[in-house]
Design goal:
This protein is an alpha+beta fold. The protein has helices spanning 2-26, 30-40, 42-54, 77-80, 83-90, 168-173, 177-180; strands at 62-71, 73-76, 94-97, 104-109, 117-120, 128-145, 151-159, 185-194, 197-198. The chain has one domain (30-217). 31% of the residues lie in helices and 29% in strands. The strands form two sheets. Strands 1, 5, 6, 7, 8 and 9 form a six-stranded antiparallel beta sheet that branches.
């Protein structure tokens, strides 16, 4: 009787082992998981959620440095007369405040425009950085690139831009605004897929336009007729 049971027990063990191996054999590879994430729209949804969260409660999430890029904004009298600085003041984004030494001007966001600005302190030993937020990113599509087939590119458009972004003074002073607000933009090699998820924390928060000096600087590059104060 014992001899007759052994084959049955051995067969049962073999069957259990085979069943245990089935899920592992059928589990999709990381490359397949990444592809499914793209095809299902999950990747686009994850990217959108990521950037919406990075907006830190602001109504807009696409931001760029303003003038000196540090807070408080302090510039020379000569710089304050440039058309770039005048545009920021004339459309009601910045205003002059007290406290600047002789020969200089100190600027701060106006009360009505304060919710479009973001002030951050990355290093306590350095001045805070100040950025002006001018649109929200709407993710339009995503696709895989790279030899491993697990790296994410995505495209987006900038939407919900405030009215001041279309002001002729702002468009003339800051040439990056027109293409930024009218084109589909592409972020390349932005995130790998590992352990079942996209590592979007590696994404650059300040995705910029290729070939453009994206920022509300006093002397932005690429201007056809820069002010004399910018060295042009």
């Amino acid at each position: 009787m014992k001899a007759s049971r052994e084959p049955k027990r051995g067969g049962a063990r073999a069957l259990l082992l085979a069943l245990a191996l089935v899920p592992a054999a059928c589990a999709p590879s990381p490359e397949e998981q990444a592809r499914r994430s793209i095809d299902s729209g999950q990747a686009v949804a994850e990217i959108q959620t990521f950037f919406d969260a990075r907006a830190q409660g602001l109504p807009l999430g696409q931001c760029a440095a303003v003038l000196t890029g540090v807070s408080p904004i302090q510039i020379s009298d000569r710089t304050a007369r440039l058309d770039t600085v005048r545009a920021l003041v004339e459309v009601g984004l910045l205003e002059e405040v007290a406290g600047a030494p002789s020969g200089e001007v100190r600027l701060a966001p106006t009360r009505k425009a304060a919710h479009w600005f973001r002030v951050r302190t990355r290093n306590p030993s350095l001045p805070s950085s100040i950025e002006l937020c001018y649109a929200r990113r709407r993710i339009t599509r995503a696709w895989l690139v790279g030899e491993d087939g697990k790296t994410l590119n995505f495209a987006y458009r900038l939407v919900d831009a405030p009215a001041w972004t279309g002001d002729p003074r702002m468009r003339a002073a800051f040439p990056f605004l027109a293409p930024a607000l009218s084109q589909e933009l592409v972020a390349t090699g932005i995130a790998p897929f590992r352990d079942g998820r996209w590592f979007l924390d590696l994404a650059d928060e300040g995705v910029t336009l290729p070939g453009q000096d994206e920022g509300f600087y006093a002397c932005p590059d690429g201007r056809e007729r820069p002010d004399p104060g910018c060295g042009g």
